[in-house]
Amino acid sequence: MSESSAPAGTPRRLAVLGVGVMGEALLAGLLRSGQPADHVVVGDRHEARAHQILATHGVRAASPADAVVGADTVVLAVKPQDMSALLDEIRDRLEPGALVVSIAAGIATAYLEARLPEGTPVARAMPNTPALVDQGMAAVSPGTHCGADDLAEATRLLEGCGKVVTVAEHHMDAITAISGSGPAYLFYVVEAMIEAGVLLGLPRNTSTELVVQTVVGAATMLKETGEHPTVLREQVSSPGGTTMAALRQLDDHKVRAAFLTAMEAAAHRSAELAQG
After folding, report:
1. pTM for the whole structure
2. Are 122 and 112 in contact (CB under 8 A)?
3. What is the mean pLDDT of residues 160-164?
């Protein structure tokens, strides 16, 4: 057991550095899943934001450097461009053996390990915004010094607001492109479908309700039936019918190819972020 590890049965002391959308989502999920608020400290460069989180969730607030003192686990939830300065600020204040979990896109475990004390266990994670409603999808990769217990703890953090898979780190850019950015693609499609309903004469609120429930229902079918999406699509697509007419237009406009190209671009951008 590392010097900073909590004894068995004792809640771990947690520091969350950066409490934007994803940082707060993870924090809220952890609190809902049983993490005691009095064992959590948040740190944010915007003091007003930190105190807003304090008022909402009942946790403590401190500067990032002070927040990590005594913490068994430190979550880095800042933007990639802010990571270097944050690591400089906390490096000498970390407890020996404290687990560091980063959710910053494109930041590799090797980058973190090179800027933290030798032997620091590090895990890299990529959650997504449905974590806000406990329907997140996250992936986690262990660094060089991240043991089985450390990985289990990183997984526990993410499971507070959704599902988690463990992957090799070389897959992380693809995961960023697929599930990390994925909700934005779906929202984009939903926007387009709602606008189509309005164009066809539906009131906007009616079009919105129709589209949102259609998306929820389709996602539930995918999850609960276990059928391949091609099978489910074919069940809706009668020969010569309305759905086939629509799908023909999507194919003619190369929508499938556009999605592939878009996700490749997201993965390439994730890789660029890792290079600074």
Report:
1. 0.88
2. yes
3. 92
